[in-house]
Amino acid sequence: MKYLWLALAAGGLLSGCSGEQPKMESTTSEAQSSTATVMLNTSMPAPIAKKVPYEMTAHGVTRTDNYYWMRDDTRTDEEILAHLEKENAYVESVLAPLKETREKLYDELVSRVEKDDSTVPVLSNGYWYYTSYSGENEYPIYLRKPQQDAEPEVLLDANLMAEGHDYFSIGDYQVSENNTLMAYSQDTLSRRIYTVFVKNLETGEVLSDVLEGTSGQVEWANDNTHLFYVKKDPQTLLGYQVYRHKLGTPQAEDTLIYEETDPTFYTFISKSKDGDVIYVHHDNTDKTGVTLIDANAPLTAPKVFLPLKSGQEYSVAKLGDTYYILTNIDATNFKVMKAPVSNTSDVSTWQEVVGHRPGVFIQDMEVMKNHLVLKEKENGMTRLVVHNLSSGEQHVIPTQDPVYGAYFTGNTQVDTETIRIYYSSLTTPASILDINVNTFDTEVMKQTKVSDSFDSSLYGSERVMIEARDGTSVPVSVVYRKNMFKKDGTNPLYQYAYGSYGATIEPTFRSSWVSLLDRGFVVAVAHIRGGQMLGREWYEDGKMGNKINTFTDYIDVSKGLVAKGYADESRLFAMGGSAGGLLMGAIVNMEPALYKGVSAHVPFVDVVTTMSDASIPLTTGEYTEWGNPANKGEFEYMLSYSPYDQVEAKAYPHMLVTTGLHDSQVQYFEPMKWVAKLRELKTDDNLLLFKTDMEAGHGGASGRFKRFESTALEYAFVLHLAGVPL
What we know:
By secondary structure, the protein is of the alpha+beta class. It has 4 domains: 26-108 and 591-726, Alpha/Beta hydrolase fold, catalytic domain (Rossmann fold), CATH 3.40.50.1820; 119-358, Methylamine Dehydrogenase, Chain H, CATH 2.130.10.120; 368-450, no CATH class; 458-569, 3-Layer(aba) Sandwich (Rossmann fold), CATH 3.40.50.1820. The protein has 13 helices and 38 strands. Strands 31-32-34-33-35-36-37-38 form an 8-stranded mixed sheet, sandwiched between helices. The protein has a 7-stranded antiparallel sheet with strand order 8-9-10-11-12-13-14, with no helix packed on it. Strands 3, 4, 5, 6 and 7 form a 5-stranded antiparallel sheet that branches. Helix 3 (99-111) packs across helix 13. The longest helix has 17 residues, at 78-94. The two termini are 34 Å apart.
């Protein structure tokens, strides 16, 4: 559901490519393919789940769910846990002959992770903050120092804190204005429900203040005594209450500052660069807004920046006595306005800084003392534009790649002439760049090391436009190893997409993909409708009643890449996670013969049932993305594509499905039910593998190395099916 699935990780009725459909082969025939040497263990029978009919009726439609019994919100039901363990054992049994392959792939993937590594320090209130990894440690150490050349002070050692926990994650940390206290949050279950602690940095003492049930975010008032946090609803897992806590008092005495009564909203907090204001952000897929808390007078009542309004979105950045506002008010693809701090609620008094241009999507902004830097997209191509606030001049920051991904990071200072960005392309590893906004002189602060032998010049990337069935041109980013790419329809294809929430999957480097590229794969990122690669309308054309476009775009991209010679039609592999897992579920129902193998990670597949139950975490926050089944038309539309509901008796491709028992975003029982129903109805002998991480949640394992175990599993699955030797 909401938020991208990161492992760091979510069709239409026209059939076929031009010409003959690719043949679905059995597991046995796969074992006799060109890889030759490996026979999978298919003698062990797949787990078959019991059927307990459960009827649900809405709008005159009765659905019978034979696997509804698999839902257990407590995650303690012994029968359910036993079935998940059987599925895991089945995966390990079937893939036992690939054990060495998985181990080699894991070692290969991990070898690209620099053992001793640190982030680029960020200056905040007189200290430089950064994190560091060393050796085989899975978790970071959080550090600070008063000068760049000073000895660092250890704030938190997550490796020590993680001892005794199967899962561990630091959510956020913030240091008080006087630099002596640190509030931090941790999650030891992977449900994204965090507990906040406070540490005295002078003594090392962890104070008695413990704040339970939070989103993980915390912000200090400037009196060094009060802090603000967001509390989550324990059932829906939506952040909905902002509390003020006074040090030394129990959580039960905390003051409720703001409560979101609209269950479609996500609530989160941040702080202005000058430290004067704490922002309370209100966000759903249809409207956004901000409430202001005076960080210098934390006991005063908060102030609404601009009342919420349907279809109205805005975000703000404070610069002295002025707010800069990125908004879609009378601007589909956004514009930049400004308003005085003293009067923000009267839009008629706002002044235009950068006007709306229909073909240009303003995605983000960074405000500096003398400059405004915008991240824009035109025809899906990113550019960073510097606006001089005094002269009005504007210049595009030059980049080494025509197609790339970038975002602002670590820009904590206002009085500066340097902008810091994360920069990457499909062939350029992740880099942190400091760019002078006057001269464009660029300093590479860090570039992620892939390996001693990695040479980016060996790889090529392209932006390809594929025509969808309705005539719409869909952008696709492809990457390949030059000496292995033939463009004659013989390369296997690994295609990835997300396509929901307006999330834009940027064409950036992923070291794990090198393992596929070096074995002759073409990797494609399909920028399908439902994202915002081509602006706000691109998102609107792939949500709610237009959701079908997301699925048909993906299918049409696959066929288009085959037609253009980028892919072997018999070796197409699809991957998506979370809402991208919904995408996988839809395409295998709509065009099962098109794909050789499909990887669906933490997939949101039981759309109608989940969206009909407000008690399921995050459901209500999704109404403006998928629809509310209480409305007949929205119910019928969701039912028409819901992967679980549309499973039928037919042949499906080879499939690998993964989940985490403690997933807070997509509950484990959705993929569990889906797999059970597929096993019941599918008519083929192809692989259907279901792997549950019994310790993790939506983002997978928490350690920096351990998380690659799931990637190694997937790649072993893909390489075997493709007939590609290790």
